[in-house]
Structure formats: structure tokens, C-alpha cells
Amino acid sequence: MMLTRMSRAPRVLMALVWVAVFLLLHLAGGRQYVGVLSGTRVGGAPELVFGLLYALAWFGAVLLAPILLLAGLADAALPRPPSAKRR
Predict the structure, then answer these.
(1) pLDDT in tens, 8-59
(2) What pLDDT is attached to residue 67?
(3) For residue 52, which phi and psi values (nearest 5 degrees)?
(4) Contact call for residues 72 and 10 (beta carbons, < 8 A)
(5) Over the range 50-76, which residues count as b (16 or more CB within 10 Å of their CB) and which as e?
(6) What distance in Å separates the CA atoms of residue 54 and residue 33, rounded to the nearest whole number?
(7) Structure pTM?
(8) Is the dihedral of CA 6, 77, 70, 82 positive or negative?
């Protein structure tokens, strides 16, 4: 029953993906490369890309994931309107 509700609410899954990507990048040590946003580069091009990916994942997890989670949970919790049947 819960699985069918989750499949109806892809927003919840997308929010969980954003948070999971952020956690993976955080555990990989991406926080130390975010200095690129303030103009202090800590390495070459790979570190630049890693820092930018970490920053985007952080913004997604902090700003976008809660909105997606609330919208998905509301969509799953509210009853569906009856569909109009054709005659």
C-alpha cells in the first residue's frame, strides 16, 4: 500500500535523491572545495567542478528538497477526485 502511494508521488523520491546526492558529496569531502564561490581556488579544474557540484547539491537539499517533499506528501495524502467516466 505504501509503495503504491510512493510511486504516485515522484516528488518525494526526487527530494530523497537530492538529499542522498548531497550526503554522498559531503561524505566525499566536497565541503572543502566550496571556497571557489568566494574566489579562493583550492586546486585545479577537478576540484573546481567538485566544489560547484557540492554547492548545487547543497542548494538543492536545503531549498528544493523540502518543497518537493511537502508537495509530494500532500499529493499522496490528499484523496484523488473522482474521474469523469465516458458514456
Answers:
(1) 578 889 999 999 999 999 999 999 888 877 878 777 888 888 999 999 999 9
(2) 94
(3) -65, -40
(4) yes
(5) bbebbbebbebbeeebeebbeebeeeb
(6) 8
(7) 0.76
(8) positive
In the chain, what is the straight-line distance between the N-terminal and C-terminal CA atoms, in Å?
31
Residue of 67, 64, 72, 80 whose CA lies nearest to 6: 72
pLDDT of residue 6: 54
* Grid cell for residue 40: 579562493
Report the phi/psi class of residue 21: left, alpha or beta, with left for phi > 0 and alpha for psi in -120 to 50.
alpha
Q: How far is CA 36 from the centre of its chain?
A: 22
What single-letter DSSP state applies at residue 36?
G
pLDDT digits (tens, 9 = 90+) for 51-85: 999 999 999 999 999 999 999 888 888 887 777 77
CA-CA-CA-CA torsion sign (3, 17, 71, 31): positive
Of 64, 72, 73, 70, nearest to 18 by C-alpha is: 64
